[in-house]
Amino acid sequence: MAEFDVVTPSVKVADGTLPTATGKALSVVALRKTYGDVVAVDEASMEIAAGEFVTFLGASGSGKTTTLMMIAGFCEPDSGTITVGGRDMTRLAPQKRGLGFVFQQYLLFPHMTVSENVAFPLTLRGVPKDEIRRRVGETLEIAGLSGFGGRKPRELSGGQQQRVALCRALVYRPPVILMDEPLGALDKKLRDQLQVEIKAIQQELGLTVIYVTHDQEEALVLSDRIAVMRNGLIEQFDTPRELFERPRTPFVADFLGAANFLSGHVEKHTDEHTLVRLDETGGLLKARRHELATGTQIKAAVQPGRLRAGAPGDGFCTGTVETATYVGTLVRAGVRVGSGDVLLRLEVPAGRGPVAGERVGVTADPEDVNLFADERER
């Protein structure tokens, strides 16, 4: 089965030692891939450190999976370079790259036991049998599968099968493990559980992981850094906190948290703040200081969870609560403001949430307000 080639390097290790990555694990420079007139990946560049968990995040067609496939060797780039541990692997076949791969489909050998599936890469590498047994046992224990070695894949749940697939990819400690939406086929509760387990394993073993997902929450939970992709381009490559709190483009602000956007212009600057006069309400919105010229038309972005509802007249605008939906720990409210064309989305703790029909003032901490020059002016 060719799908397994990527996790079975052709280099045999006679002494049973496992390779470990130090320093810079992977470097991608100006990677480009086209299909006819369609640019799937456009000059993507990044450096990933050893032991780092990096996620490619984006909607379908953003280029995230194509980038992963080029790193794995399943897809040949038109131009650019891929270096792993200082070695140029741009044109190497997948089986010669020595990278681990975990698919959404588990791709386990149905006729083999769990232990045999996990041992498969080591068997092909010529690792001694005693060493194989030790490593397989250790790896299954790390994944919480110590008592499952003798079972066949059909005797396991979906979550257990995905753990086996992960064990098979990490049993020989490849320099980089690639994961292509590995939790996509599981229900939410199990996905949440496995996210925690994958992150714990990655940190315990110091693994370098590149992960692909379209799920924003999953990316925020797992990642040290996230590459947000759109139309083949990397919009921003940063830490989860920086992406969420300091997005560099309106797309990132909206994609990571469904931000509220308000139009206005920069009225003036103080030593610490930028004051924005809003078009729709005429209110004055205070933001942390941005380097935008006075008079610049802008879009102000604020995440729903960073807005608060207070007494009418408080804050930068007043509106009427149109919807208030209880979702457990939160109330999600929609507040209609101005002439009625703008609906602000708020997320407030349950028990303190406004009710439909109530008039409220909307406030925001200046540190939570991001400003972007209106693209129509560029």
Automatic annotation (TrEMBL):
Q: Which domain of life is it from?
A: Bacteria
Q: What class of enzyme is it?
A: translocase
PROSITE patterns membership = ABC_TRANSPORTER_1, ABC_TRANSPORTER_2
Instruction: Enumerate the SMART domains for this protein.
Output: AAA (SM00382)
- Keywords of the record: ATP-binding, Nucleotide-binding, Transport
Instruction: Give the ABC transporter domain ranges.
Output: 26-256
SUPFAM superfamilies in the record: MOP-like, P-loop containing nucleoside triphosphate hydrolases
E.C. number: 7.6.2.9
What Gene Ontology cellular-component terms does the record carry? ATP-binding cassette (ABC) transporter complex
Its Gene Ontology molecular function terms? Answer: ABC-type quaternary ammonium compound transporting activity; ATP binding; ATP hydrolysis activity
User: What is the protein's given name?
Assistant: ABC-type quaternary amine transporter
Its lineage reads: Bacteria, Bacillati, Actinomycetota, Actinomycetes, Kitasatosporales
